[in-house]
Structures are given as C-alpha cells and as structure tokens.
Amino acid sequence: MTIGVRRRMGVEERRQQLIGVALELFSRRSPDEVSIDEIASAAGISRPLVYHYFPGKLSLYEAALQRASDDLAARFVEPHEGPLGARLLRVMRRYFDFVDEHGPGFSALMRGGPAVGSSTTNALVDSVRQAAYVQILSHLGVTDPPARLELVVRSWISLAESTALIWLDGRRIPREELEPQLVNDFAALAAVSAAYDEEMAALLRRIVKDEPADGPFASLAGRLIALAS
Amino acid sequence: MTIGVRRRMGVEERRQQLIGVALELFSRRSPDEVSIDEIASAAGISRPLVYHYFPGKLSLYEAALQRASDDLAARFVEPHEGPLGARLLRVMRRYFDFVDEHGPGFSALMRGGPAVGSSTTNALVDSVRQAAYVQILSHLGVTDPPARLELVVRSWISLAESTALIWLDGRRIPREELEPQLVNDFAALAAVSAAYDEEMAALLRRIVKDEPADGPFASLAGRLIALAS
After folding, report:
1. Exposed (0-12), middle (13-18) or buried (19+): which is B140, by Cβ within 10 Å?
2. Pick from B142, B169, B156: which is nearest to B88 by CA?
3. Residues on chain A touching B89 (C-beta within 8 angstroms)
4. ipTM, two decimals
5. Within chain B, how many helices (H) and strands (E) appear?
6. Given A4, A56, A158, B168, which is the most exposed site by the fewest CB atoms within 10 A?
7. CATH number of the domain where residue B21 is located
C-alpha cells in the first residue's frame, strides 16, 4: 500500500466538483450532446464513480441547473438605491452576462431540452421567474400588486427571456443595445397598461417622477415624442 | 351473422374521430389527467381498439396537437385589407377564442406538459410561432426583415403567449381589454426599437401613416402623450 499524493475528496466536495464540471459542459454545448463519459473524463474520475454520486445524467443535470438557477437569481438582487431605470439596467447587464456564459445550455433548456418536462426542471425555471418577479415588485415598492401590474411584470420577464434567446441565435444585435432596450420595453408595456387604467397610471407617474432626464425611462419618452412628431 | 345497424367507420375516419374526442378532452383538462380508458369511453369504443389506431397516448396527443396547431395557424390568416391595427385586433380576438376553447391543454403544453420535450410537440409549437411570424411580416409588407424587426415580431409573439397564459390563470383581466392591449404592445415594442434605430423608425412611420385616428395604433400615441403631460 502506498499513500496517495492526491488528497481524497469528501462526498459533498466530490458532488460539488462534479456539478461544476457538468455545468461547465452543459453551458458550452447542448446538454443532449454531453455524455457521462465526458463528464467523468473532465472530472478526472471513472464513469462508475460518477454514478456513485449521481444515479443518472438527469439527476446531475438537475443539480447543475439548481446551481445555475441560484446563480441567476442572485444576480437579480440589486441595492434599493438610485433611479429605478439605472437599477434595472444593471440587472439586465448581469442577466446577459449569465446568458452569455451559459448560452447553449440556456437555449436548450428554454427551447425544450432533454430534461425539460421533468417536474424538477420546470420548478427550477419557475422559481427563477418568481425570484425576478419578487425583486421587481420590491423595487417598485409594491407588496400587493393589482392584476394589471402583475401582468406587466410577468409578461415582461417572458419578453426578456425571448429577447435573450433570439440574441443567442446569431447575436445579430449587440447586447449593449438590447440591455437598455429591455428597460425601455418595461416602461413601454407599463405605459400601455397605464394608458387604459388609472391605477397603473398613478403607479407609473410615481415611478417616473424620480427618474433623471438622461435615464433610460425619461430618455425614451423624449425619443418617442420626437418619433411621433 | 347479422348486419350491424351502425355503419363501420373506415380507418382514417376512425382516426379523425379519436383525434377529435382526444382534443376535446385534452382541451378541458390537463392532458396528464386524461387516460386512454376515458378517450375510449368517450369515443364509444374499447381500449384495445384505441391502441389499434394509435400505439400510445403520446401519439394520440401529438395528433391532437397537430390538429389544434393547424386550427390556430389558420386563425392567423387575415385579409390584407384596411388598417393594420384593426387587422391585428381581429387576429387577437380569434387567438383568445382559441385559448379560451383549449385553456387547460394550452396551459399544460406551454408550461411544460407531459409530452413537452418530445421533438414532435416542440416542432409543432415552433411551427405555430413561425406561422404567426410569417403572417405578420406579410401584413407589414416586408420580405427580408432586418434583425431588429425580427426581434420585435418574435418577442411580441412570445409576449402574446405569456399574456394568454397569465389570463388563463384566474382570468382577472377581461380578454376584451387584453386583445387591444396586445395590439398596442406591438406598437410600443416597435416604437422602442424605432427610438434607437433609423431603419425601424422609417418602417414604423410607413405603418402608422395609414392608421386611422381612432385605431388602436394612433389612439395609443394620443393616450401616451396625455399620460406624459
């Protein structure tokens, strides 16, 4: 018997290493195309040892998706300081950073990847959407949102997803343009709702009141007026 | 031997009957909850006979989804006559009719139902989105869309999907309000894009030029200006 030069990893440490290796591979190529053999090889362990820690590829995929979901939800957290438009723009930058880092895996998941339809992956995707929703309401200072505000926020979250997916498919528009555009889209969707509903109009006036003239909210209004004339 | 009073159905006729019965059941409750036994009973035939025409529930689900997809795509077709806003509003009405008729099945599919992730169901959902995209471009009179127009149209289609899903979840906002709101959302997203891009601005000016003052496009502009002042 010899004493190994490489320290043995504990169970939890090994699991975390495998999740990291798998997430890296699932982010660079569609998870469909990543094999357990490849994950084992990238982690420097045998295929049977991978199965010792994860019963199958789906459970490893779900663990990787859990880590990615936690990561993304953490990027939504923004200090409650300064103009709202600027806060949302900073979050959009971090969102596109995430999408950029996990492109193929993000596309595969949102377009219907191998493990989509599993109740675990659906619940994780929903939990990230819910985290985004809760953050936005907290920045708007609303605890009991009317149905029209909930619609604007949730449907805008879905717009941000589809915009990111379309961006990934060829990257024909620079993300530096799409980030402020999504902030403006939020303002525009809120304005459409406010155009037909007094409660939304009052909310929007309160939001816009403190926005600086050069911020993404106010500058949009100026540009739209110029466009209309 | 006796001569049956009920005429025997041909193979294709029986298949079409089963698809109709299944679609009806899949539309009223989540397809997860509908059994082959129930479909057989509703069609007035035995369970083994269902399997004679469809090897399993997935293939019957896919056939029902194919019929629903064809139905929905046909509702997107609108004569190229009159103002664009009014055309889009008529399509939105037919879209909400469809969503209303197939509520639980539509939700289950779009939120990740039992057969989601099958390449056939994903392809069908994508084909409907593509049909909507092609129709909108034809009404805009654009054959070779710039990337920013493609983004506006495709991301708006996804906004219409999420708006319909949110509507189905409690129906807290009347659909009569959401239909024109989605037409306005389209104009608003196009306007945001036009605010930052000259090609989109020229396109939007051409679209709005022929819109009547009381149409959904022009009335939004007036309401937004009133909101801003």
Report:
1. middle
2. B156
3. none
4. 0.90
5. 11, 0
6. A4
7. 1.10.357.10
What are the DSSP calls for B126-154, one per residue? Answer: HHHHHHHHHHHHHHHT-SS--HHHHHHHH
The two structure tokens encoding residue A199: 């409660």
Q: Which residue from B114, B162, B196 is facing A177, i.e. has the nearest CB?
A: B196
DSSP string for residues in B101-120: HTHHHHHHHHHH-TTBTBHH
Per residue in B70-125, pLDDT tens? 999 999 999 999 999 999 999 999 999 999 999 999 998 887 655 555 788 888 99
- Tell whether A134 is covered by a domain: yes
Question: What is the domain range of residue A76?
Answer: 68-228
Q: What is the pLDDT of residues B15-70, one digit of tens each?
A: 999 999 999 999 999 888 999 999 999 999 999 999 999 999 999 999 999 999 99
B181 touches chain A (CB under 8 A): yes
For residue B118, the SS3 value is strand
Q: B114 at the A interface (CB within 8 A)? A: yes
Cα–Cα distance, B15 to A221 (Å, whole number): 56
Q: Which residues, 6 or more positions from B26, have their beta carbon under 8 angstroms from its beta carbon?
A: B34, B61, B64, B102, B105
Residue with tokens 């219409």: B160
Count of domains observed in chain A:
1
Alpha carbons within 13 A on the beta-carbon side of B178: 27
User: What is d(CA B42, CA B22) in angstroms, rounded to the nearest whole number?
Assistant: 9
Judging contacts by C-beta atoms under 8 Å, the chain B residues touching residue A144 are: none
Q: Which one-letter DSSP state was computed for residue A116?
A: B
Flag whether B2 is in a domain.
no
Residue A63 lies in a domain: no
Q: Which chain A residues contact residue B181 at CB under 8 A?
A: 192-193, 196
Task: Classify residue B3: in a domain, yes or no.
Answer: no
Q: How far apart are CA B185 and CA A192, in angstroms?
A: 7
Length of chain A: 229
Distance from CA of B46 to the nearest CA of A (A): 30
Q: Which residue shows structure tokens 């057969």?
A: B115
DSSP state of A33: G
